[in-house]
Design goal:
Its cofactor is Zn(2+). It is built from twelve helices and 13 strands. It is an alpha/beta fold. The strands form two sheets. The protein has a seven-stranded mixed sheet with strand order 3-4-2-1-11-12-13. β11 and β12 form a beta hairpin.
Length: about 425
């Protein structure tokens, strides 16, 4: 009899407190940057970041689902993309964590642990505008807020660079799970603070040390972060973090793949998977990028995403990932009916005909998606944009970017894939 556990994953809430319904659609929200909101309603608009009501509806849905969960991971980012004062960031952080507690998404004793990434709350990083290598007002304030739940060591590393590690000890399992919360915003391409710094805040050295200790102690690890590693599935030859940092992380994750049971990110606002292959192209790690709660897009973008949250199931004996349930809110329908009806979009194993979420299974799935004229890929792309518009298709160059980003995370193998697919097509 397989004993299982569950946890929620939410990402990119992007609260815009300026959101309000007004006849002047250029002033519905500051996040539209003066553009006409397309069809604003009580739960938001595709040109705006999240109103309070949308975020509250997501937490209410998780509460009302009555799922028995061990923790939640929150992979950033909390504030709207517009620049906001530090005091606002801190107030927002405290408000959101209070919502989760009030809505009893997880038990009060588990609401602990991570800024922008994770419940306990395992949160993973600050917004791109708060990226100091030395201590900062934001890091210190958040560290103080989480002091009741974090170890002294975790508090110290968080003050230093916004990253930390913490053991999650399940009452059903003698083997603890180590959660490593990386501040991948240090590696984010537009982050001018870390240009030409080989190891910002010494996070690489710290990460390898933690993973080596986990290897020696036979621990299992979940990696959480905001900005993902690998190549963006919608932009050819483009990594979300700088290529040098990406290559280094890929090397580290390959080396310690035996202890890493899963990796979880946000940032892109889209729903995607990646499979880390070793140098012999054997699948060794499963990576997941969760879609955003915010539905925002730029005026020039053809597509956006419906708001989404997800639930993972894992094996309590080794923390291997067994399945995920992706839920979403049809924003147009919710605004039309003035009610939030969050519903199941798909169950990953059933949608793609695989056994579980282990690397071997995801690799099998990736190969099925690569088949020419694959109806499975059509479904994957619809899920990628969280059922935003089922008439939108992804063909030729678009599909090439998707397929290569799923399977190849380092420069050499990704470039080979792009060139091979381009020649073949």
């Amino acid at each position: 009899f397989l004993k299982t556990g569950q946890f929620w994953h939410v990402s990119d809430l992007h609260l815009d407190p300026s959101y309000h319904i007004t006849p002047d659609r250029t002033k519905v929200c500051s996040s539209s940057k003066g553009a006409n909101a397309s069809n604003p309603g009580p739960f938001g608009d595709f040109l705006c970041d999240s109103p309070y009501q949308l975020i509250l509806s997501a937490f209410a849905f998780m509460k009302d689902s009555k799922q028995q969960v061990s923790f939640m991971i929150w992979t950033g980012s909390g504030a709207s993309r517009r620049r906001v004062p530090v005091s606002y960031m801190l107030s927002l952080f405290i408000s959101i964590t209070s919502w989760a507690s009030k809505e009893s998404v997880v038990s009060q004793s588990l609401i602990a642990v991570f800024w922008m990434c994770a419940v306990p709350h395992y949160f993973c990083s600050l917004s791109q505008d708060q990226l100091p290598v030395t201590t900062s007002e934001v890091y210190n304030a958040v560290a103080d807020f989480w002091k009741p739940w974090l170890t002294d060591e975790a508090i110290n590393t968080f003050r230093k660079g916004g990253f930390y590690t913490q053991l999650f000890e399940s009452s059903d399992n003698s083997q603890p799970l180590r959660i490593i919360s990386l501040n991948t915003n240090l590696y984010y391409s537009p982050n001018s603070v870390t240009v030409d710094i080989t190891d910002p805040a010494n996070q690489f050295v710290w990460l390898e040390g933690i993973l080596e200790t986990s290897l020696q102690k036979k621990e299992k690890v979940y990696i959480i972060g905001h900005v993902p590693i690998g190549y963006l599935p919608y932009a050819r030859n483009t990594t979300a973090i700088r290529e040098y940092y990406n290559e280094r992380l890929v090397k580290i994750f390959r080396k310690y793949s035996s202890v890493i049971a899963g990796q979880f990110f946000g940032h892109t606002h889209r729903d995607s998977i990646m499979v880390l292959l070793d140098e012999e192209e054997n699948p060794v790690n499963s990576l997941f990028v969760a879609p955003a709660v915010t539905p925002v897009k730029n005026v020039w973008q053809m597509e956006s995403n419906n708001p989404g949250v997800r639930l993972y199931q894992y094996d309590l004996s080794d923390y291997s990932l067994l399945d995920l349930w992706q839920f979403y809110l049809d924003l147009r329908d919710a605004n039309k009916k003035n009610e939030s009806n969050w519903k199941l979009e798909y169950i990953l194993t059933k949608a793609y005909g695989i056994e579980d979420l282990k690397p071997e299974s995801l690799y099998k799935m990736a190969k099925q998606l690569s088949v020419p004229h694959s109806t499975l890929f059509e479904q994957y792309y619809s899920n990628f944009i969280v059922s935003y518009d089922k008439t939108i298709v992804c063909e030729e160059g678009c599909k090439t970017c998707q397929i290569c980003a799923i399977q190849y995370l380092d420069y050499s193998s990704y470039t080979d894939c792009i060139n091979r697919e381009a020649t073949w097509r």
